[in-house]
Write a structure and sequence with these properties.
about 200 residues; Aminopeptidase; alpha+beta
């Protein structure tokens, strides 16, 4: 299959959207990560407890790895900031699940101070573009806790389809948790009116 030859590994950052700059993490992002991931409300439906400053330092070191997808499990952690003033909006993830089958996954965590303005949707649309148009992925998925209504509604706005509802999948933070899994194929993304005709805005 010709599509199997399209996977590229390196990504030049930053990447722009209308209002956002998607950039590599820097040493001075420690406070941004700590503020976001130490917030109990932010991590309530995410794996892990609120981060300590030491844990935020370790996370930043991981986030600052080169923007390369080569092996299964590799992921890009991208800082999302507002172009107008450089304010840190949140974190974007693009992960390679299977190189052989061109499967990827996106994720996003937004600072509550910047929610409700469409930034998560704008950043996630760019993440799909990067996955399909740059890396040549065939299918991109996303998942969230069923209780995270804003997250799965965003996935639907992206044109992703709900493929699974895992009932009481795991005992998570004191209760049985359930997950939704969404996905979209490259050809489905390409047919959407909000997908770019070709190329990237860098």
């Amino acid at each position: 299959m010709a599509d199997r030859d399209l996977l590229r590994t390196a990504l030049a950052l930053p990447v722009m959207t209308e209002r956002l700059r998607l950039r590599a993490y820097r040493n001075d992002d420690l406070e941004n990560i700590f503020r976001l991931r130490s917030n109990p409300g932010v991590v309530a439906l995410l794996y892990g407890d609120p981060m300590t400053r030491s844990e935020a330092t370790e996370a930043l070191a991981l986030y600052m790895t080169p923007p390369v997808l080569e092996a299964d499990g590799d992921e890009l952690r991208i800082a999302v900031e507002r172009r107008a003033d450089g304010a840190y909006v949140g974190n974007l993830k693009l992960q390679l699940l299977s190189r052989a089958h061109l499967q990827g996954e996106i994720g996003y965590v937004l600072d509550p101070r910047h929610q409700g303005r469409g930034y998560a949707l704008e950043a996630a649309r760019k993440a799909l573009e990067l996955g399909f148009a740059h890396f040549g992925m065939h299918r991109i998925s996303a998942h969230c806790d069923v209780r995270n209504i804003a997250s799965w509604k965003l996935m639907e706005k992206l044109g992703m389809r709900r493929e699974a509802h895992y009932r009481e999948k795991e005992f998570f933070k004191g209760a049985w948790a359930e997950d939704f899994v969404y996905a979209i194929l490259r050809r489905e993304w390409a047919s959407r009116a909000d997908s770019p005709a070709d190329g990237l805005s860098v």
